[in-house]
Write a structure and sequence with these properties.
The protein is α/β, with parallel strands linked by helices. The chain is built from six helices and seven strands, in the order ααβββαβαβαββα.
């Protein structure tokens, strides 16, 4: 449903990052230094819409905190890849909403939390998530994981959320993915995520355009 490129001309997310990220970062840093947040946002939107959207995500292998590994190629459903750092203060409201999503979309959507940290620290956080959420980790001291770290962390930092289709195409990136502390604003944020997930699963057009999950 989401295929945008012929089979022989697949465009891959990591390759697009190599081609276009440096120029985006240079322009974005200038915009931020000038206090022009709107221009910085428009630069990201342009990067995503013109070069990253519908690109394919190569198979990656993630270490599960409960043992074993998860290969994204084995997933037969759309999935959210939510990246976190263990030093980040993760609000209880956000954990509750992720658990809520995992129950609501059980059997339709996989939710994967990826901590950029050691197994010990990731495992300490994993107890907060229910069994429908797969908690994984990548220790940055592991040189074998550079092909994952570069496109998914060094490009956009953490926290972030990558919305990936059943066909392994990138549909959306939410930078600084979080759920606000305020209950009312949490509901707004959750509704925005819900709209994007509906689009992923059912090809329903979101009712609110340009809504992001990070509400300052």
């Amino acid at each position: 449903m989401f295929q945008a490129f012929p089979q022989e001309q697949k465009t891959y997310f990591d390759s697009q990052i190599v081609k276009y990220l440096s120029a985006y970062k240079a322009k974005s840093e200038i915009a931020i230094q000038n206090g022009d947040k709107e221009h910085a946002k428009s630069l990201f939107d342009s990067l995503f819409e013109n070069h990253l959207k519908f690109s394919y995500v190569r198979d990656i292998s993630l270490n599960k905190v409960r043992g074993g590994s998860l290969k994204t190629s084995s997933l037969d459903k759309p999935f959210l890849l939510i990246t976190k750092s263990s030093w980040e203060l993760i609000k209880r409201e956000e954990i509750n909403e992720i658990n809520r999503m995992s129950k609501m979309y059980k059997g339709q959507l996989d939710i994967i939390i990826l901590f950029w940290d050691s197994k010990t620290k990731a495992k300490a956080h994993s107890k907060d998530y229910n069994s429908n959420v797969t908690v994984t980790y990548i220790d940055e001291r592991d040189n074998n994981a550079n092909h994952i770290i570069k496109p998914f962390k060094h490009s956009f930092g953490a926290p972030a959320c990558f919305f990936i289709s059943e066909e392994k195409q990138l549909l959306k990136i939410d930078k600084k993915f979080t759920i606000p502390n305020s209950y009312n604003r949490s509901e707004v944020a959750f509704s925005a995520i819900h709209e994007k997930i509906k689009w992923m699963l059912f090809n329903d057009k979101p009712t609110n355009t340009d809504v992001i999950t990070t509400l300052q």
